[in-house]
């Protein structure tokens, strides 16, 4: 008995896109969905109420960060992540594989696991597949990720093959170590780098382990977008239709559309919240750098097609002023807007799938946004 159930509502007639409902212990998620990232048990600058207000259905947190600070046992004693951060809807945690390789001074990768130094204080740590699952079980997210190696983009065939095969062995160990499959759904992660045959092997062997959902890992790590789309074309066909597919680390408007068209159901990315704090916002006519002088006396909203709190109440001139004055409210208003922009884009995508007009929607969106049609 798994913790989640994926319900395929409709297969798009124009593409590989699908409309679905993901039933979880903390509620139903409509897919395709964008998942705001709350790495340290908070989506930066947002309260849970504001996240609900903009339509967030599931948020992410991160095992590596929470293990290092405040510690998974403290979160467990607080009643788990939902209690600790006052979020009663679904949560997904990554296994920490990516952060160990990208954030810490990596010491050593062995069959057993990874030894690394904390990016916070340089202290030495060891995480194995079993340890990662133990941490995720303590945190209590509805969906948890297997411990994997996100193979670097520039890795050669030999390294990628060995890394992918180890990730498969680690996936087996994660499955065996998982204590609560009825409460927390463990997703397998497909690797294989930029190599067609390795992607096919990784997908087939991961699916044989029968996970309740599958992530496509090892992408959005510096490769050109057309390579990412090519890898999706190689990988998604081997994933079962009756299970959710999650493309890790992807969140620009064009990549969301291209991923949905290739059959991806779930996306996460720090981009919208990170660029918001630096004063770059999404609009239906492309990205806007609000600190630019041209907006100094622009009393219109960030985006006249946006329904968010920021666009209903504040002008570009005011938001630019806040950024120039380094006011905390600047980050909050820009974050509310950027997250609402992506969540609304996913609502529009879900509607387009329902109406069998997704490719037409994409063409119209790209034209307005200023993407050149490939
Ligand atoms: C950005 N591109 C990208 N991110 C990636 C992440 C981190 C997402 C996680 O890291 C945090 O955001 C940086 C978020 O907390 C997210 O949580 C799921 C990945 N995680 C794992 N375990 N395996 C992968 O192959 C992988 C690939 C990625 N590509």
TrEMBL record:
Q: What is one process in the GO biological process aspect for this record?
A: tRNA queuosine(34) biosynthetic process
Extract the Pfam families matched here. TGT
Q: Where is the active site?
A: 94 (proton acceptor), 268 (nucleophile)
Question: Region annotation RNA binding: residue ranges?
Answer: 249-255, 273-277
Instruction: Give yes or no: UniProt keyword Metal-binding.
Output: yes
Cofactor(s) needed by this chain:
Zn(2+)
**GO cellular component annotations of the record:** cytosol
Indicate whether Nucleotide-binding appears among the record's keywords: no
The enzyme class is transferase
Keywords per UniProt: Glycosyltransferase, Metal-binding, Queuosine biosynthesis, Transferase, tRNA processing, Zinc
E.C. no: 2.4.2.29
What InterPro entries does UniProt report for this protein, alphabetically?
Answer: ArchSynthase1/Queuine_TRR, TGT, TGT-like_sf, tRNA_ribo_trans-like
Record text on cofactor binding: Binds 1 zinc ion per subunit.
State which pathway it belongs to.
Answer: tRNA modification; tRNA-queuosine biosynthesis
Q: Name one GO molecular function term.
A: metal ion binding
- Its domain of life reads Bacteria
tRNA-guanine(15) transglycosylase-like domain: residues covered:
15-369
Task: List ligand-binding residues for substrate.
Answer: 94-98, 148, 191, 218
What is this enzyme's catalytic activity, as reactions? 7-aminomethyl-7-carbaguanine + guanosine(34) in tRNA = 7-aminomethyl-7-carbaguanosine(34) in tRNA + guanine
- What family is this? Belongs to the queuine tRNA-ribosyltransferase family.
Q: Cross-referenced NCBIfam families, in alphabetical order?
A: Q_tRNA_tgt (TIGR00430), tgt_general (TIGR00449)
Q: What does this protein do?
A: Catalyzes the base-exchange of a guanine (G) residue with the queuine precursor 7-aminomethyl-7-deazaguanine (PreQ1) at position 34 (anticodon wobble position) in tRNAs with GU(N) anticodons (tRNA-Asp, -Asn, -His and -Tyr). Catalysis occurs through a double-displacement mechanism. The nucleophile active site attacks the C1' of nucleotide 34 to detach the guanine base from the RNA, forming a covalent enzyme-RNA intermediate. The proton acceptor active site deprotonates the incoming PreQ1, allowing a nucleophilic attack on the C1' of the ribose to form the product.
Q: What is this protein called?
A: Queuine tRNA-ribosyltransferase
Source organism per UniProt:
Caloramator mitchellensis
């Amino acid at each position: 008995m798994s913790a989640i159930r994926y319900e395929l509502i409709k297969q798009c007639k124009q593409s590989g896109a699908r409309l679905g409902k993901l039933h979880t212990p903390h509620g139903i998620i409509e897919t395709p969905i964008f998942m705001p990232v709350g790495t340290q048990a908070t989506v930066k600058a947002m309260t849970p109420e504001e996240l609900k207000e903009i339509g967030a259905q599931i948020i992410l947190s991160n095992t590596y960060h929470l293990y290092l600070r405040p510690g998974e046992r403290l979160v467990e004693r607080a009643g788990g992540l939902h209690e600790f951060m006052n979020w009663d809807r679904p949560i997904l945690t990554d296994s920490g594989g990516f952060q160990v390789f990208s954030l810490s001074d990596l010491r050593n990768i062995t069959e057993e696991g990874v030894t690394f130094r904390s990016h916070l204080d340089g202290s030495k740590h060891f995480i194995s597949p079993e340890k990662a699952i133990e941490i995720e079980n303590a945190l209590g997210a509805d969906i948890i990720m297997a411990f994997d190696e996100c193979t670097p983009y520039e890795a050669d065939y030999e390294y990628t093959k060995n890394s992918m095969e180890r990730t498969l062995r680690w996936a087996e160990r994660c499955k065996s170590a998982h204590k609560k499959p009825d409460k927390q759904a463990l997703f397998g992660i497909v690797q294989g780098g930029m190599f067609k045959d390795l992607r096919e092997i990784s997908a087939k062997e991961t699916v044989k382990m029968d996970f309740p959902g599958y992530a496509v890992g090892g992408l959005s790590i510096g490769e050109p977008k057309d390579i990412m789309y090519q890898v999706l074309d190689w990988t998604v066909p081997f994933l079962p239709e009756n299970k959710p597919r999650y493309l890790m680390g992807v969140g620009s408007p064009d990549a969301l559309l291209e991923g949905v068209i290739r059959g991806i159901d779930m996306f996460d990315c720090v981009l919208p919240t990170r660029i918001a704090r630096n004063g770059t916002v999404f609009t239906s006519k492309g990205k806007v750098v609000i600190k630019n002088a041209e907006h100094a006396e622009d009393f219109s909203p960030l985006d006249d097609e946006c329904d968010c709190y920021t666009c209903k109440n504040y002008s570009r001139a005011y938001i630019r002023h806040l950024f120039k004055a380094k006011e905390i409210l600047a980050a909050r208003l820009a974050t509310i807007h950027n997250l609402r922009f992506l969540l609304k884009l996913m609502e529009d995508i879900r509607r387009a799938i329902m109406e069998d007009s997704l490719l037409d929607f994409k063409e119209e969106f790209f034209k307005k946004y200023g993407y050149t049609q490939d």
